Amino acid sequence: MNFRRIFLVKCLLLLFPSVKWSNANGIYRAVNESALLDITAAGSLYDVRWLRDSKKLLQIKDKKVKYYVNKDQCRCKIFLNGTLQIEQVMKEDSGNYTVTVYQQDGKLKAEEVMKLVVQEPVPQPILSAECMNKTISVKCEAKQKTKDETFIIELTQDKSKKIQKNATKLELHTRYSGTFRCVVQNQVSKKMAEKVITCSGHLDVYLILSIAGGAIFFVIFVILLIYCIRKKKAGRLEDDDEERMMQARQVDSEMVVRELPQPPCNPTPKQLRVQQRPLPQPQVPQQALPPRPRPRTQQRTPNHPRERP
Ligand SMILES: *[C@@H]1O[C@H](CO)[C@@H](O)[C@H](O)[C@H]1NC(C)=O
Ligand SMILES: *[C@@H]1O[C@H](CO)[C@@H](O)[C@H](O)[C@H]1NC(C)=O
Ligand SMILES: *[C@@H]1O[C@H](CO)[C@@H](O)[C@H](O)[C@H]1NC(C)=O
Ligand SMILES: *[C@@H]1O[C@H](CO)[C@@H](O)[C@H](O)[C@H]1NC(C)=O
Ligand SMILES: *[C@@H]1O[C@H](CO)[C@@H](O)[C@H](O)[C@H]1NC(C)=O
Fold first, then answer.
1. Which atom of ligand 5 lies nearest, measured to the CA of 152?
2. In a domain? residue 48
3. Do residue 21 and residue 110 come from a single domain?
4. Are residues 178 and 270 both part of a single domain?
5. Which ligand 3 atom is the nearest neighbour of the CA of 95?
6. Which of 142, 156, 181, 265 sits between 20 and 30 A of 290, alpha carbons compared?
7. Residues 243-301 pLDDT 10s
8. How far apart are CA 181 and CA 197, in angstroms?
9. Residues 211 and 192 in one domain
10. Which of 58, 228, 189, 36 is nearest to 114 (CA)?
């Protein structure tokens, strides 16, 4: 009986060239979405019948709809153009849908088959890593809700190393730290997880070391620079002071009186300071205010290299 039926169907398939699989790759819908299954055959649609896996669903004949299943259970309806709509699809709605179109005279006009696949949205992938000796073991996992659920997992490292598989778990072993990305997808959804994975005591030690080395070098450089600048300044000050001291002493010993009008010609405070000591004479009028010069000399002491130990 069964064999004969198959033979008959095959004969029909041969006899009627309009019989075909539409949506060859299948129609994919996520749970709760709605699906529209269209008839591609053109022309009048007097009598349209929809079956799922050889089970009669409904029929529209002369614009009158007849259900062979519970309307609420199948969540389905048919439009005048023959399109079958299934609302809030469930995984159980997956299957091969066959539509047959008959002319008013009862002749089969067209037969089309299409595969509907209802999938759950993919789970969020879990990306984890383990450092073992000198390698990193990166694992990406997508937990199945049901055993028949399949996804495509893709694990990439810094857009270079890449593995892809039809599975629920993927592992990648590498010697290099980096950014790892795991993408889990099926026909209806796609989810991603990304992580920067670095193993301590790993290759990036070199990076850390070089950064630390650079920092230390920089600090030393800065210290040396400061030291050199200060020393140079100090040296210059000392030289200047000594020169002026010498000048002052010479002047002191030779002709103090002639030196007296000089301060206005050399108005820089340094010179004044230096000259104040060997030449106590101009200070004479200031002796009426003894506390004033003292704080001044105290303030200047840090700038005065001669007074450093
Ligand atoms: C589908 O919709 C129902 C109610 O509208 C909701 O409870 C359920 O979580 C939804 N399922 C998915 C996978 O979105
Ligand atoms: C049939 O009609 C429905 C509702 O008007 C529409 O959504 C669908 O696209 C139509 N299909 C075709 C093949 O025209
Ligand atoms: C749908 O048709 C395909 C191709 O003929 C077949 O492999 C598959 O088993 C069918 N599915 C169901 C649920 O009958
Ligand atoms: C790490 O390497 C040591 C020797 O180098 C070996 O004995 C040990 O089993 C390795 N551990 C792992 C987790 O591979
Ligand atoms: C993945 O493998 C399963 C069976 O293990 C198969 O049914 C499914 O079609 C495969 N998916 C892809 C995209 O290759």
1. 13
2. yes
3. yes
4. no
5. 13
6. 265
7. 666 665 565 555 544 544 554 445 444 444 444 454 445 444 444 444 444 444 444 44
8. 10
9. no
10. 36
Question: Looking at 99, 119, 139, which one is the last position of a domain?
Answer: 119
Is the CB–ligand 3 distance for residue 53 below 6 Å?
Answer: yes
Amino acid identity for residue 93 in this structure: D
Note the pTM of the prediction, 2 decimals: 0.59
Domain span at 260: 205-284
Rounded percentage of the chain residues whose pLDDT exceeds 90: 40
**Ligand 4, closest atom to CA 133?**
1
Q: What is the CATH number of the domain that holds 95?
A: 2.60.40.10
Residues 145 and 231 in one domain: no
Give pLDDT tens digits for 220-259.
888 899 888 888 888 776 666 666 666 655 655 555 445 4
Q: 33: CA distance to ligand 1 center in Å?
A: 10
Long-range own/partner contacts, residues 299-302 (CB < 8 A, 24 or more apart) = 300/273
Compute the Cα dihedral for 199, 203, 205, 211 and give only its sign.
Answer: negative
When divided into structural domains, the chain yields a total of 3
- As a whole number, mean pLDDT of residues 209-221 equals 82
